[in-house]
Specification:
- It is a single chain.
- The protein is of the alpha/beta class.
- About 45% of the residues lie in helices and about 15% in strands.
- Strand 11 and strand 12 form a beta hairpin.
- Helix 3 runs antiparallel to helix 4.
- The longest helix has 16 residues.
């Protein structure tokens, strides 16, 4: 017998066979859209929205139509929480999905009881009930989403009633649209900038004098960022980070649901300053109402001739906290899994599609018009001494009046609670707080008089203000339980790219779940490895709550 005789016979094409019907459905759905690789996630959304899931036959057809490997399409589809991939022979999800937030503020608001009631009452053939990470509605805990309808202070009774009535579509709140914004003086500053009456150097100086910093978490001076991006040869691009996924944070949603054109005008001024050829607005999928607003108002800007068609390109996230990290967000915009890039180079030099890229979060851009029109001294003067600027604090938890509070930089949490939130909720005494969302650490009430700002005494305590998300706890809350909730979130949201974060978050959850004394030496070793070796802020900051649990809350162990 020859070697040729021993070879297996050809049994036909390898891999999943192409379904001609599925290919026709995909092509009809995508229509005349350009089949660009960076639009893969947008196309996955179209299929999911139309058919309620991503079936194997449609994924195979999409790969064929885009001339991509099936592995590329599959790895992207399975990376994001909001895509439901159904393998051959698998059962599609129920026609209606109810997502219940189980992040820390909603945990305090009764999310576990809500989940239990829904799972016991809902018909699983008609309604799928799932846990979801932070939905950015922390002031209305427990929060839920039924279909595309966002619900505050949700109850099983109200959600099931809405399901029966078909009240599951997007509900857009009243907001300042294009015409109203322009009648109130909107886009006059942009016209001055484009006409040269306001120079880029002048505006950069004003932002510096105002003390405006990035308000998405990192706090980098906004004007300096413009200068860095301008220093690299073009062509240049700009991105807006609307992936507000830090538990406890919801300020960007509030701004976009009320007055979106302030962010648009700030973005267009910034894009003009760095000569960006296009703006990519990345918005989290957890905000369907905001997405509807952005689509409407981008179209209004194009119709009015403020921007040319396609200059602002809206991109829809798909449920991945890691995409709040700027380089992971750029990967997602390029149609890939949202995994952070190694740095350097930084995105100011090599960013989106390899071009120098200016990236800002929503609130940072929202303030630009006011700073230029009213002067940097106006903005800087609203802060506490040594802490320039006013900030938007997302406050939730055991306070009487949660919500977004406009208060000075450098304010203390005790002042926030008493002067802006009506004090603690009835029957609750101040015990602890998150100064900056899940990753900012947990501090006790005895450290409630520390000025909240970037760096300073807060940093000395191993904490940070981040996105200005403050969650307040009381004597009713066990801080070990709070820490476990936060670590479950980090475990779920780790992208898995680097071992210290992927394995470290899982191990910390396992250790916190164990009964009896915690193995503190092991935890401290793990904490050090995660901080020193993780490639992005998720793994580096994830141990913060555990560190503070062991430091300040030993009575809760």
């Amino acid at each position: 017998m020859t070697m040729q005789d021993r070879r297996p016979r050809d049994r036909g094409p390898k891999g999943r066979a192409l379904d001609d019907g599925a290919l026709a459905e995909v092509r009809e759905l995508l229509g005349a859209r350009e089949r660009r690789r960076d639009l893969l996630i947008e196309f996955l959304h179209l299929i999911q929205d139309r058919y309620g899931c991503l079936s194997a036959r449609h994924l195979r057809a999409l790969a064929e139509d885009m001339r991509l490997s099936q592995a590329e399409v599959y790895e992207v589809a399975t990376f994001y929480d909001h895509f439901d991939v159904v393998k051959e022979g698998g059962t599609p999800p129920a026609p209606l999905t109810i997502r219940v937030c189980d992040s820390v503020s909603c945990m305090l608001g009764g999310a576990e009881a809500l989940l239990g009631e829904l799972q016991a009452s809902a018909d699983p053939a008609a309604i799928r009930v799932v846990r979801a990470p932070c939905m950015g509605r922390c002031a209305g805990a427990p929060a839920a989403r039924i279909g595309d309808r966002e619900v505050d202070e949700a109850s099983a009774e109200s959600l099931l009633r809405m399901a029966a009535a078909g009240e599951v579509g997007v509900e857009v709140p009243d907001y300042v649209g294009f015409d109203a914004y322009r009648q109130a003086g909107g886009y006059q500053l942009l016209q001055q900038v484009r006409a040269g009456a306001r120079t880029t150097d002048e505006i950069i100086a004003m932002l510096g004098d105002a003390g405006l910093r990035g308000l998405g978490g990192a706090g980098f001076p906004a004007g300096k960022k413009w200068g860095f991006v301008r220093s690299y040869p073009g062509p240049r691009l700009m991105s807006i980070n609307g992936d507000e996924g830090e538990p406890g944070t919801f300020k960007d949603r509030i701004y976009l649901e009320k007055d979106p054109h302030r962010t648009f005008e700030g973005a267009l001024i910034a894009a003009h300053a760095v000569e960006a050829e296009r703006i990519y607005f990345y918005m989290r999928d957890e905000y369907p109402a905001v997405l509807a607003i952005l689509r409407t108002e981008i179209a209004a800007l194009e119709t009015a001739g403020i921007v040319s068609p396609g200059f602002i390109e809206l991109r829809r996230g798909a449920g991945a906290y890691i995409c709040g990290e700027e380089s992971a967000m750029l990967e997602s915009i390029e149609g890939r899994r949202g995994m952070p890039r190694h740095r350097p180079p930084y995105i100011a030099e090599v960013g989106l599609f390899g071009r120098p890229t200016l990236n800002h979060n929503v609130e940072t851009l929202w303030w630009i018009r006011d700073i230029v029109e009213k002067g940097p001294a106006w903005f800087a003067g609203m802060g506490k001494p040594g802490h320039p600027g006013i900030r938007s604090w997302s406050v939730s938890g055991r306070v009487k009046e949660p919500g977004v509070k406009l208060a000075p930089a450098g304010i203390t949490v005790r002042e926030l609670i008493e002067d802006y939130c009506g004090g603690m909720a009835d029957g609750h005494e101040f015990k602890a707080y998150l100064p900056g969302g899940a990753s900012g650490g947990i501090l006790p009430a005895m450290l409630g008089d520390i000025p909240l700002d970037f760096g300073g005494e807060l940093a000395k305590q191993g904490a940070f203000v981040g996105s200005h998300a403050v969650v307040v706890f009381s004597q009713a809350d066990n801080i070990k339980d709070v820490t476990l909730n936060l670590m479950k979130f980090f475990k779920h949201e780790s992208c898995g790219k680097c071992t210290p974060c992927r394995e470290g978050t899982e191990k910390l959850v396992t250790l916190l779940k164990e009964d009896g004394p915690l193995p503190e030496n092991d935890i401290r070793d793990l904490e050090m490895v995660m901080r020193d070796s993780s490639i992005c802020g998720l793994g580096q900051a994830a141990p913060n709550p555990v560190n503070h649990l062991l430091t300040h809350f030993r009575s809760d162990l």
